[in-house]
Design a protein that fits this description.
about 375 residues, mainly beta, 28 strands, about 15% helix
């Protein structure tokens, strides 16, 4: 074999290897994504799309509330309020004697409490005076409230001024008179009596419950009530909501009354209504707390589609995928989906929803709206070109 033939034979394997590498490179280019193939073939003149630009929208909407009605009536039981005062003996004292002579005098002190001073009225001191000579003096907490010659055994009660009364009080008995006259009193059946108002019957408490949806979407609210009472004798009616006075007036008896309620005064969950009167009597009927909600609020967001991505979608080199991820609570998830005015419905229990929206997008500005048909917790909303 000559030298030329040997050279040809040794070069043939190298040429085969180059051919194989060339074929592999061609297949590699063919299977590249269109955008990357364009960059490889056209170099710096190609319009490139970064990975970040492929994510058109990435949001976390959170909770979307829903209510199948917009008016809620919370009915509250009737209440009966009446001013009740009872005469109560606050203190008693055994019979005693007070006197005054040339060489000294004998006084008597009596201590008594007033447990509920605010609701105690008309406090009086009553006593019998079988023996009486001179002028009887009575002091309340150091202040002279009575000085008189008692002419009968059963005198009229002595009024104890409320301005002088305290939680603990001291009554002091003494006698005075002329220098040569007899000065002596024997007192029995001594007692202090007062009228105590039973405030428990002047107030009533009821509760009602507000849901999260009501509270978060509240438009207006009010309290309706119908008091049955005597307009000439009733006092002020106070209504408290969660410890705050929302109404304080003499209402229109035998007719409907309404008081506006405000969102800041209402609580999610239990709300407490307190009715209280100062005097008279009321029967409050047809009590109702009504809440009126705003229309269900949809979630709306916007995204932009660049011309390079839009052209890839038109050429069917890319698709645009919408993904919604919900909290995995295994309950029904229903919503109206609106992409650029094209409506569809989500109705599933799965925690993930995906849809190809390539045919719905347009170059430039786009919008997507999710209107809940059940309460939804949306963890993620993403629009991505792939």
């Amino acid at each position: 074999m000559n030298r030329r033939a040997q050279k040809f034979q040794t070069g043939n394997p190298a040429a085969s290897l180059i051919g194989i590498i060339t074929l592999l490179f061609i297949f590699y280019i063919l299977f590249l994504p269109p955008a990357e193939r364009q960059v490889l073939l056209e170099g710096e003149n190609a319009t490139s799309v970064t990975v970040a630009e492929l994510t058109l929208l990435d949001a976390a909407p959170g909770r979307l509330t829903f209510s199948d009605k917009n008016v809620f009536d919370h009915r509250i039981p009737n209440v009966y309020l009446v001013e009740t005062r009872n005469a109560v003996v606050l203190a008693k004292e055994n019979p005693f004697v007070v006197n005054k002579g040339w060489f000294g005098e004998q006084k008597k002190s009596m201590v008594f409490p007033v447990v509920d001073l605010e609701n105690t009225e008309n406090v009086i001191l009553g006593f019998q005076a079988p023996e009486r000579a001179g002028a009887l003096q009575i002091f309340l907490n150091g202040q002279l409230i009575y000085e008189n010659k008692v002419s009968v055994q059963n005198p009229s009660p002595v009024s104890l001024p409320k301005t002088l009364l305290k939680d603990t009080n001291i009554l002091e008995f003494a006698v005075t008179g002329g220098f040569f006259s007899k000065k002596k009193y024997s007192l029995s059946d001594v007692k202090v009596v007062g009228d105590i108002t039973d405030v428990q019957r002047q107030m009533a408490t009821n509760t009602f419950t507000i849901s999260n949806t009501e509270h978060d979407n509240l438009d207006t609210a009010y309290l309706d009530f119908y008091p049955i009472c005597d307009q000439k004798s009733v006092g002020v009616l106070d209504i408290e909501l969660n410890g705050k006075i929302i109404y304080s007036a003499a209402p229109a008896c035998e007719g409907p009354n309404r008081q506006d309620l405000y969102g800041e005064d209402l609580r999610i969950g239990k709300n407490t209504l307190l009715f209280r009167i100062s005097k008279g009597s009321y029967r409050v009927e047809q009590v109702k707390a009504r809440t009126v909600l705003k229309p269900v609020k949809a979630y709306i967001d916007f995204f932009n589609v660049k011309s390079s991505i839009y052209n890839d979608v038109l050429d069917k080199d890319r698709i645009v995928l919408l993904t919604l991820e919900f909290v995995d609570d295994q309950v029904s998830k229903r919503a109206e989906l609106n992409v650029n005015g094209r409506m569809s419905v989500i109705d599933q229990r799965d925690n993930k929803y995906e849809r190809d929206i390539s045919s719905l997008i347009r170059e430039g500005n786009n919008y997507i709206e999710v209107k809940p048909l059940t309460e939804l917790d949306v963890v993620k909303l993403q629009v991505r070109a792939e």
